[in-house]
Amino acid sequence: MWPVLGLFFLAPFVGEFLLGNVPITGMGLGLLLAPLYGGGAVLVRELGRRAGGWPSMFLLAAAYALIEEGPVDQLIWNHSYAGHDYLTGPSFVPLLGTSVEAVQSILALHTIWSICVPIALVETLSRRGPWLRTRGLIFFGLLFLAGSAFVFLGNYSEEHFLARWWQFAYAGAAIVLLIVLALRVRVAGELPGAAPPPLVVGLASLVATSAYWGSVTLIGADWFEWVGVAIWCVVVALGIVLVTRWSRRAGWDRRHRFALAAGAVLTYAWCSFPVKPELGGTEVGDVVFSGVALALLLWCVLKLRGERVA
User: Whole-prediction pTM value?
Assistant: First the structure.
């Protein structure tokens, strides 16, 4: 059970604490967020492993992102979420009642960092097969629903905001579509040639994710919003094409998957310093959490090297 528990607590750590959204004084919040983040990550991993592997997990992670920031906490529709207006700007679409940039941001945050990165790191330290049986899946499914209800009710009690029915409807349709695609997708055949070295993959991940987050954190002018949207599209398109092709070549293994995750973790580590904690407090947690993340990456490296020597 340790991989399950590791993923259960690693998901909220990477998703909220490593980025700097929550200060070190809010560590207790991680326990409250674990049923939502951790329960979701465990479900994505287990269902994805039973379906099409990583392509399925990626699509399920995107569905999770829309679930959390759509029906659960409603950030993508609330103009005063946690005292901030994340929606008003050049990319706001009145017909949908949301912002293109905001939707892209939550997809990036949760698909990659909250779900896929923790899964890749824990799988580096454990076996690939399913970790849970049917009863375990049911338990974590109920835990995820309880965590979702807790966050929904907590946000509603503070925000007193409820989206319109048609907003829930189109978000639900998108979520269902992603889940159906995730359960039907299959890995394509192998391509000729060898996969690039893991170091190259890791550097590519670091550069691509840093390019996106650099545009988000370092430049805040309104006119730049559509530029950020374009950068997101370019990074995502290139990432999907490159990773899809690389992963279908001979030699691609969990060293490469770890390298992808490691590059993304390093991006979150440096981004945590310009990002201000949403809940206030000091930024000493940025140093502490980045140190913990680097120690985890080192553990994974030693694990992989030990396997090669053996």
Answer: 0.93
